[in-house]
Amino acid sequence: MASPGGPRPGNLPPSFIPNSLANNMQNLQINQPNQPQSNNPTGGVSRPPNTTPFGQQPPPFAGSRPGPPPHSAFARGPVPPSPSGPPQTTLSPNVAPVRPAGPPPGSQPPTPFVSRPLPPGSLPSSMGGATVSLASGSSPQLGPGPHHGPFVSSPPMSGPAAPPPVRTSGPLSNGPPGITPAQFQAGPRFPPVMGSTPRPPPIAAPQPATMLSSGSSSQRPQLRPNFGGPPASASLATTHPGPSSAPPQNMLPPPAPSPFSAPIQSVPRPSGSPYGMQTWMSQQQQVAPPPPVSGLQPPRMFGMPRTLPNQSLAPTSPALFHTGAAGTAQSKVDPSHIPRPIPSSVVILHETRQGNQANPPPPATSDYIVKDTGNCSPRFMRCTINQIPCTVDLLSTSAMQLALLVQPLALPHPSEEPIQVVDFGESGPVRCSRCKGYINPFMKFIDQGRSFICNLCGFTDETPRDYHCNLGPDGRRRDADERPELCRGTVEFVASKEYMVRDPMPAVYFFLIDVSTNAIQTGATAAACSAINQVIADLPEGPRTAVGIATFDSNIHFYNLKRALQQPLMLIVPDIQDVYTPLESDVIVQLSECRQHLELLLESIPTMFQNNRIGDSAFGAAIKAAYLAMKSTGGKLLVFQSVLPSIGIGSLSAREAEGRSNISAGEKEANKLLQPADKTLKTMAIEFAEYQVCVDLFITTQTYVDIASISVIPRTTGGRVYYYYPFTALSDPAKLYNDLRWNVTRPQGFEAVMRVRCSQGIQVQDYSGNFCKRIPTDVDLPAIDCDKTIMVTLKHDDKLQDGSECAFQCALLYTTVYGQRRIRVSTLSLPCTTMLSNLFRSADLDTQFACILKQVTGEVPSTPLPQVAEQAKNLCINILHSYRKFCATATASGQLILPEALKLLPLYTLALLKSCGLRGDGRIDDRSSWINYVSHLSTPLAIPLVYPRMIAIHNLDEKELDSSLIPETVPLSSEHITDEGIYLLENGEDCLICVGNSVNPDILHQLFGISSVEEISSQFVLQQYDNPLSKKLNGIINEIRRQRCSYLRLKLCRKGDPSGTTFLSYMVEDKTPSGLSYVEFLIHIHQHIQRKMP
Amino acid sequence: MAASRLPEADLEGIEGVRMTWNNWPRTKVEASKCVIPIAASIQPIRPHVDLQVLPYPPLRCKTCSAVLSPFCRVDFTALVWMCPFCYQRNHFPQHYSSISQTNLPAELYPNFPSIEYTIPNYPQNPQNFNPSTTVCPIYLFVFDTCLLEEELDFAKSALKRAIGMLPDNAMVGFVSYGTQVQVHELGFSEMSKVYVFRGSKELSKDQVLEQLGLGAAGRRAGPGIQKGGDGLNPLGGAPNSGINRFLLPASECEYTLNSLLDELGTDQWPVAPGNRALRCTGVALSIAAGLLGASTVGTGARIIAFVGGPCTEGPGSIVSKDLSDPVRSHKDLDKDAAPFFKKAVHFYEELGKQLVSQGHVLDVFASALDQVGIAEMKVAIERTGGLAVLAESFGHSVFKESFKRIFEDGEQSLGLSFNGTLEINCSKDIKIQGIIGPCTSLEKKGPAVANTVIGQGNTTAWKMCGLDRNTCMTIFFDISSNEKSDPSGTNPQLYIQFITSYQTPDGQTRLRATTVTRRWVDSAVGTEDLVNGFDQEAAAVVIARFASYKMEMEEGFDTTRWLDRNLIRLCSKFGDYRKDDPSSFTLNPCFSLFPQFMFNLRRSQFVQVFNNSPDETAYFRILLNREIISNAAVMIQPSLISYSFNSLPAPALLDVSSIGADRILLLDSYFSVVIFHGMTIAQWRNMGYQNQPEHQAFAHLLQAPHDDAELIIRDRFPVPRLVVCDQHGSQARFLLAKLNPSATYSNAHEMAAGSDVIFTDDVSLQVFIDHLQRLAVQAS
């Protein structure tokens, strides 16, 4: 594993402007009436994109490929997806073949706009560089130019220069799938570019719009139909304005980093821009962009101005955004211009508060450095909406969730300041005497500092005598800046005696290893032993670290590791119905006393059991026994399990088989197989939690192990399930080792209790995550680590005052691995609002989606799948509908209008619907494991889980990677995959490398040391060969590992193989037998919204 | 001393049988008038120089399966023999065809009433005839670790020495226990491996086997997997699966065991202050028994348990763990104030049954200052024919030497044998009430079963899982009361045949047939024959056993009164006296010693239990019931030998008057051997005269009792405690307690100088006899 540290700023290519996209709002306009027509054409169109384009295009692409690459090449120095050489030429060829009408350029432009009929708006939108154009285009007769100007300029981002190429790329790419990736990246990075191309300078901002517009222009096949059927069903339009304001904020904060990035960006861009220009030209042919663009830009203009204000959170009127959209009624949806995530590689510098106002955080998925200026870092706690609705009604009108995602020990960015530790001595931290809230920067000191008003409950407390300090002229305590607890959103208090029920527990690690036949023969045991053996060195040093080890099959084997013995002594507990610990002491021994024995033992376990013929596994009994051994201290129980627990307490049946025969019932009722088989393990888990035993499961298996049942243990005890299926001794041991190592070395705490307090008017409704809850207000965590996230749903119990702030405080009392008792307190204070538009503008997409993901996933085991899917879809629709209804009233009804901040919600929702957990066809264990993974998933990982990152790696050496290690991403659509390509797709856990069937053997040889596609086996170990390509690939993978804090499970896939099918199942934008394509889905949503509109 | 014992040994002769009455009254009524029950004490595998071992199986009667004996009438011409018990005529098989009056097989020699046959193999496991596995006895050590460090070391070294002495092919297993039970898998080469069982939970045999992986083969392994395993590992599978994981030939596991013992520490489970250690003896034994249950049927095995304290955990507990609760006393038992007792006894009863059904033995070596629960375990020990040794410490010679004796080879070997069964055939009209002794009824019904039961009854066959040379049992007979039965009249002889089959320590299967004959007498005619046939020593022992048995079985049994009444009745019946004239009372020499035996029995630990703990009592009784008559008699009435300058060592009266300042006394009370130096002797010795060459005689005098004591100790099991003391020393109580208190503080003034007095209110023998005479002559 890479070092856990967050992404380093240095690594990231400054060129990316992360937030720009997110900031803009997009409108997708779809004319229903048109649709039918469009459909006809679409027959070719909407679906074609997947099928036809694919099938047909390839040939053209051969020629055309080049087309896309150029874009990429231009746009991004680094990652052009397809190898094609000369951009322009390629493009043109592409264009030509694809769209019979070479001339189409002219025609195309309109198409994108779909709304040809709608003269300016639509056109402009498309023009705008697609993305921007739509939204802005519609309304904005406003002078785009100026706006852009400011926009671009204002964000120090080297908007102008870069933008052009990007945009160009966008449109260009549209046509050929291969290109799309470029577009995406381009979009994000050079949003400005987009604008620039058409109107170089201004456009920077429009990016968002580009998305939309691009769509129109991009897909040639579609375009045709569109053209053919002028009535094209839907037009997509993004409105920047409203959203833009929000984005700007994001944008703005970055300024700091951006400056750095800017220069760099600018550099490439300039060069790019010219190219871009050219490309544009080519594109223009297709789109006939320029004119329309102008039209589009106007909207942006609006956006632009706001952007500035945005920083100050000035509300933006949604109407603006809509305007653009309204115009384009009939245009078809262009898949390449619809909103897609655009990873930013720019490191954003984020101050949590500015000008005494909460500063909306950058997207969770972006790379940022936080400066704690009063609010806690968004890493620790982020809210689904960065402004709090004053009333329930307002919230329910918005249809959005109000929830916090809390990750109390989240890994900081290495460049961030460490959290300050405050020691109040014997008396402990100052707290409100009524609500017990901890002192924080928002507690208001009054009466010369003699008392303070609690920002959580409003009670006036007397300042403790020795904590008294006079107030300055500004009403703040004079020492406020010297005291971290008064100026920082997150501090750690040293816990005094009153926070301890007992002495802080030692760091106890107990390893439990399956040695049943299966585990032995598959090499799982050996892998586990070797992993543990290596990890021992990483355990915290010192007398407080104790370890124990046990193995189990149908018996449980403990080992006495006491130093006095000549060799370890194996102690077998055979009574697996009623277990016990075989020794009072000596089963768990101080690490320093048993290191040698332990190593010896771990080396000998695999051989010792090599002839073990016991196939049964007494998993339940084993963990119970281990728990009993740990009971006096608590600690971490790390279990390596390989087969279905078949015997002893908590044994399970292979009910999967029953489930299969019973499949017909599946549609109507919840799948029982996703629920625990019985309550035995739950009861045990609660007991474990009570004694501070946290269980992590490493499941290395080839078969069904009923994760649904056994995962109850880690979920209740603050652990997690690691799932290696099918386990292979070739490639998995490395991951196992790295997972284990990260598990024990990452920042973590023991015997923790967490509570979130809210200002009056709001209260916590529920917590969800991996923990045990005994009383409603607190969450018990036998262990908590930097990866674990807890979702806290909130509810109103009163009105909030407009203009006031609402605070949330998360207090985590825990013991460090070194035995100190600490209270980590994170406080987040957000403004309250009565404006719906503010809510939409300040919505935090990543957080919202993470919440939706968690909520929907939580429903899966207990609700019939179709119902769950419906629910997920409705969550999305309701929000969009609300926005459409209340914030975009001015727009024509035919438009799909997306709030800028949430423009990706449909995509993510679609991805969610197609995710492993919500597909009915997956293996039960895969689904259970997925469900489990989600339950503790952190916000930054939520999106990659359903919408993985895909990059092309066959052409790595053709691209000069700029400072960013990771090339630009490719949209998850099979259109963008070529047979000559090799693609890497990763979702934070797994990493699939798909090799096309006609890949250049040279590349194969360089990357994998094989000479033909036939030699590919799904089991492989990535090796670094002595060639630049291989080095780059290794570099990329290592970078991803570092970013994800996860050693990915690498798998080679090949089209035509089952492995290829797996890979394709991640192409969430594709149409599948059971799911809609992205475009279809947008239309689908739009229809729903329309139906809801009066 | 040794010389004096030889004739006694002869009493048993080659038969190894002694009866209370050697001439039997003809009827039940007559028998009951005899007061002393008709009983035989048999030493089933008594070694004897003349004993013949025949290399072929015995001929058995086809109806009653009695074995051919010298008492069978044989028709040499017809080659037919008639069974003396059922009168069945049996043909000799072909290979006996050459027999004739002059060519008799050994079993027909009249001077071989006992004869032994070697049986090729035990019939129960013919299919896998594998001498090496079926034959070697198993020694499963069950080792208490709730001990003080020092005690543990003693125990460990004793065990190590024992293992060194085991025959190479003896199978050895090891179980240690404290709060939990640890079954050590000796056959695991990789590292020390133990199965740990909780001490608080009782497990059935099946559960134990299951959990040790010895259940029905492969029950736990999936079929497919097992197949694979077999294929991969045709040889390796075996040692990993069977009981041989736990039981290994001594030669193979000696090293493992020694290193294991080196590492074995005292129990790690914490003992709260004011509490006893949690010790799960019961579960340990039951798991050991379960483990042995996996051994091949018919394999002899013994569980040799080291117990260092009371069981406080799980089934078989005898006391709570709270130290402020004392272990039950006889008083508690009498008042039913021992809450654990009955449950524990029941537990051990069940354990005993299990062991018996497996044919295995439980030996207990208890070493503790307090009680460990022998009283509760007695039933299991006795039913299985196990050994019990009670000592104060594992460092004490009583334990150390006794333990060594078990494994010793050669002449002094105990000849520990296994899997014995005893069958009895007897003449018509004789019924068997039961056996008191180390055996279990096999519930084999037959015509010879009496209606009333004493001890292990209701059967004509008994199981003796463990037996040795000295094992002795008391069989109680009854006479069927049919006076008119004529056929018996025709034959004045009665026959009883004891058939004992057993496995020798080296694995041979033997069958010994002992056929005895006695005479019927018509006591209505006169008592002379009866009187002459009375064996007073045997009678005393039988009465002692019977009394002990009744004390255990009958609540509120007044032993002293019962003994007195019986003695009085006996004297009334067989004494010569004039009514109501005590002075006229005389007893036939055949009875003359009996009253004194009774006097000592009344004072002995068997009757006066309140001087001892229930454990000690149980221990004494176990030995009383299993020792040969002469040894048992010593338990009841110790022997005393006096050494002085003036005379040869000579038996002395068991009386305080035997104490003399210039004498050395050697008391053998079986459980202890006391060398008592008179005051003067002690002074001389303290002054070191024995070291001066001119006083060599004194040195010899000092040495003589030690040599004799050594002789006694050497062939006794358990080894008695040797007490060397001086007159007026504190240890002298061991002697004084056994002496007749003819001189007490009340009549001290009459005593000669240099003698001693006993501070007691007990009556002296003289007073006892006086009363007896008076009561015996009273008209009843």
List keywords for this structure.
heterodimer; A: 1094 residues; alpha/beta; 8-stranded mixed β-sheet; 7-stranded mixed β-sheet; 16% strand; globular; B: 780 residues; alpha+beta; 25 helices; 30 strands; disordered N terminus; Sec24-like_trunk_dom (chain A); SEC23_SEC24_subfamily (chain A); protein transport (chain A); transport (chain A)
SSE blueprint:
The complex is a heterodimer of chains A (1094) and B (780).
Chain A: H1 19-23, E1 26-29, H2 34-44, H3 51-56, H4 58-64, H5 68-75, H6 87-98, H7 104-107, H8 110-113, H9 122-127, H10 131-138, H11 144-153, H12 163-174, H13 179-189, H14 191-196, H15 200-203, H16 207-218, H17 220-228, H18 241-251, H19 257-266, H20 268-287, H21 290-311, H22 318-327, E2 347-351, E3 353-354, E4 357-358, E5 367-371, E6 381-383, E7 388-389, H23 392-398, E8 403-406, E9 420-422, E10 444-446, E11 451-453, E12 460-462, H24 484-487, E13 490-494, E14 507-514, H25 517-522, H26 524-535, E15 545-552, E16 556-560, E17 569-573, E18 588-590, H27 591-608, H28 619-630, E19 635-641, H29 655-661, H30 680-690, E20 693-700, H31 707-710, H32 712-717, E21 721-724, H33 732-745, E22 748-758, E23 762-768, E24 779-785, E25 790-796, E26 805-816, E27 821-833, H34 836-841, H35 845-859, H36 865-887, E28 895-898, H37 905-913, H38 924-935, H39 939-946, E29 949-952, E30 982-986, E31 990-995, H40 1001-1008, H41 1028-1044, E32 1049-1054, H42 1058-1065, H43 1078-1092
Parallel strand pairs in A: 2-5, 7-27, 9-13, 14-15, 14-19, 19-20, 20-21, 31-32
Antiparallel strand pairs in A: 1-28, 3-4, 6-8, 8-25, 10-11, 11-12, 13-27, 15-16, 15-18, 16-17, 22-24, 22-26, 23-25, 26-27, 29-30, 30-31
Chain B: H1 2-12, E1 17-19, E2 23-25, H2 28-33, E3 39-42, E4 52-54, E5 73-75, E6 80-82, E7 89-91, E8 114-119, H3 131-135, E9 138-144, H4 149-165, E10 171-177, E11 180-184, E12 192-198, H5 205-211, H6 223-232, H7 237-241, E13 248-249, H8 250-263, H9 281-292, E14 301-307, H10 330-334, H11 341-358, E15 360-367, H12 374-383, E16 388-391, H13 397-407, E17 417-426, E18 430-436, E19 440-441, E20 461-467, E21 473-479, H14 486-490, E22 493-503, E23 509-521, H15 528-532, H16 536-553, H17 559-574, E24 576-578, E25 581-586, H18 589-592, H19 594-603, H20 614-626, H21 629-636, E26 639-644, E27 647-651, E28 664-668, E29 672-677, H22 679-687, H23 696-714, E30 721-726, H24 733-736, H25 765-777
Parallel strand pairs in B: 2-23, 4-8, 9-10, 9-14, 14-15, 15-16, 29-30
Antiparallel strand pairs in B: 1-3, 3-21, 5-6, 6-7, 8-23, 10-11, 10-13, 11-12, 17-20, 17-22, 18-21, 19-20, 22-23, 24-25, 26-27, 26-28, 28-29
Pfam family, one (chain A): zf-Sec23_Sec24
Domain Zinc finger Sec23/Sec24-type (chain A): 429-467
Domain Gelsolin-like (chain A): 967-1036
